[in-house]
Design brief:
- Helix content is 15%, strand content 35%.
- With 81 residues, the chain is α+β, with helices and mostly antiparallel strands.
- It is globular.
């Protein structure tokens, strides 16, 4: 077996963290952000300016415009004006 293949088998999976920005567009928790921020993400947590954090799910994204919509698991949020 080639050495490179042996190393891949024994290599633990890495956890990556990335940062991005976005804004709330609806009080139901919809957020617009950049697609490259959420691309390939398995877990998304959004931390608001006040320090509150919420899990989010991807609603959709577009590579050509680099925009994405995610939804926070929260209620009563104030959308950007």
């Amino acid at each position: 077996m080639p050495l490179a293949r042996q190393q891949r088998r024994g290599t633990p999976q890495r956890r990556a963290t990335s940062l991005g920005s976005g804004f709330i567009i609806d009080s139901a928790g919809y957020v617009v952000t950049n697609n490259h921020v959420i691309a390939g993400a398995q877990n998304i947590t959004v931390t608001l300016f006040d320090g509150e954090s919420y899990p989010a799910t991807v609603i959709g994204g577009d590579l050509s415009t680099d925009l994405a919509v995610i939804k926070l698991d929260a209620e009563g949020l104030r959308p950007a004006t």
